[in-house]
């Protein structure tokens, strides 16, 4: 038996990736499943980006690059942050990694000591607490509630901060609820942080362009410019440009933190893939003309799912303002017997039983708020309509 490190023992495989792999495995075996697990756009990467990647490969983007990203991509990111987020940053304040996930991981690796605390707001993206745990830190959860629009209560946040808090993780629009932090709340969070000068903020803005309202997303460091020197603004090309497989994420923050993260990259990945960096540069410098059509499609799917599931007995559906998920409360289903006779003791049991019924989702416990499940709406409208039919049929077969 290989002795695996205790560090690895502190974390679980990403639940969303586990659910996605499981569903895809069953589909490959011929099972009829509406797969609503994957948090990845079902659209193809825009052609002009693929073209730029192909041309870059032929032109020699096939070699090592500086560990923290090429000068050309960093410049494109500097301009993106100014153009889209009103953030003024220098190239030495920018880092490129193999996905926003690696950027978040490296930021925590570069800063956390065992026993430090990382404040996460539930429902949270599955990886924040586990990455903190991997580094020996303690995730401290600030709860938010559907009844309050999953708004962050500044007083609750204040009570969660201690002298050991290193990071506050923010994510707007949010995975899994799709809620957006409004500007006033961002200002109030800034107010709390002014009393806690050693707390840094990691603001994950990867869904910034996928919004169903006209309200601007608001970037934390732009809303609270006096705090900018302790904010790491994280983003990436995966969601906006449907480039999940290219594995490019990036961030802007204090130059000493960015240098430490680049040092770490020099010892783990070496650098993000050269050709992917060129593809990301093409993406960030060629406009967003393709996007309104995609957002219209996400909106139509969201409207369908919210409307259909609102009439399914026992479910409470939260209407997202952005991202591409619908988070569904299922407390009234807990304790019922499912169509197979299995008792739905928690949301993992609900998700397993739903899978048997042809709908793949992710259990709410992975996001810190139960009982619930997350449906990805990054699937065709026909698949979503079929999934809603199956959910309604499922509800009709539950026994008290
Ligand atoms: N943050 C959030 C909130 C996400 O949903 C994802 C998608 N998995 C990521 C970060 C990481 O994305 P990537 O590593 O593909 O850039
Ligand atoms: N972020 C996506 C999701 O939440 C991809 C899976 C993952 O990285 O965990 O489904």
Short description:
The chain is an alpha/beta fold and 400 residues long. Helices cover 40% and strands 14% of the residues.
Q: Radius of gyration from the CA trace?
A: 21 Å
| CATH fold-level name of the largest domain | Aspartate Aminotransferase, domain 2
Number of strand elements = 13
Helix content: 25-40%
Bound molecules: 4'-deoxy-4'-aminopyridoxal-5'-phosphate, glutamic acid
Calculate the terminal CA-CA distance, rounded to whole Å: 45 Å
Query: What proportion of the residues form beta strands (DSSP E)?
Result: 5-15%
Global structural class: alpha/beta
CATH level 1 name of the largest domain: Alpha Beta
Oligomer: single chain
Shape call: globular
Q: Please, what is the average pLDDT?
A: 97
Walk across the major sheet and give the strand order: 2-8-7-6-5-3-4
Q: CATH architecture of the largest domain, please?
A: 3-Layer(aba) Sandwich
State the main characteristics.
binds 4'-deoxy-4'-aminopyridoxal-5'-phosphate, Aspartate Aminotransferase, domain 2, Aspartate Aminotransferase, domain 1, 14% strand, four-stranded antiparallel beta sheet, 400 residues, globular, seven-stranded mixed beta sheet, binds glutamic acid, alpha/beta
């Amino acid at each position: 038996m290989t002795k695996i490190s205790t560090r690895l023992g502190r974390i679980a495989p990403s639940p969303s990736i586990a659910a996605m792999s499981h569903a895809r495995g069953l589909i490959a075996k011929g099972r009829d499943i509406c797969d609503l697990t994957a948090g990845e756009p079902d659209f193809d990467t825009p052609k002009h980006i693929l073209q730029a990647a192909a041309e870059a490969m032929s032109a020699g983007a096939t070699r090592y690059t500086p560990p923290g990203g090429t000068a050309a991509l960093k410049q494109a990111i500097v301009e993106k942050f100014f153009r889209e987020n009103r953030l003024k940053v220098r190239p030495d304040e920018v880092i490129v990694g193999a996905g926003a996930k690696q950027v978040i991981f490296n930021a925590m690796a570069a800063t956390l000591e065992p026993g430090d605390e990382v404040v996460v707001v539930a429902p949270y993206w599955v990886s924040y607490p586990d990455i903190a745990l991997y580094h020996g830190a303690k995730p401290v959860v600030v709860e938010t509630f559907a009844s309050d629009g999953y708004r962050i209560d500044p007083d609750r946040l204040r009570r969660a901060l201690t002298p050991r808090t290193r990071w506050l993780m923010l994510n707007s629009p949010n995975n899994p609820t799709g809620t957006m932090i409004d500007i006033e709340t961002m200002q109030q969070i800034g107010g709390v942080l002014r009393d806690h000068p050693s707390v840094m903020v990691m603001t994950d803005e990867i869904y910034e362009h996928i919004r169903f309202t006209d309200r601007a997303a608001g970037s934390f460091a732009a809303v609270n410019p006096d705090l900018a020197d302790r904010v790491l603004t994280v983003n990436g090309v995966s969601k906006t440009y449907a480039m999940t497989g290219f594995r490019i994420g990036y961030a802007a923050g204090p130059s000493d933190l960015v240098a430490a993260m680049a040092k770490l990259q020099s010892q783990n990945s070496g650098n993000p893939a050269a050709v992917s960096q060129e593809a990301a540069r093409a993406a960030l410098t060629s406009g967003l003309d393709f996007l309104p059509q995609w957002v219209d499609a996400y909106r139509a799917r969201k409207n369908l799912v919210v409307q259909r599931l609102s009439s399914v007995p026992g479910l409470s559906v939260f209407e997202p303002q952005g991202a591409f998920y619908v988070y569904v409360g299922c407390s009234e289903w807990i304790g019922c017997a499912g169509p197979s006779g299995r008792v739905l003791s928690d949301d993992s049991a609900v998700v397993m039983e739903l899978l048997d019924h042809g709908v793949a989702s992710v259990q709410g416990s992975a996001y810190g708020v139960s009982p619930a499940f997350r449906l990805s709406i990054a699937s065709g409208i026909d698949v979503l309509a079929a999934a809603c039919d199956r959910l309604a049929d499922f509800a009709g077969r539950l026994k008290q």
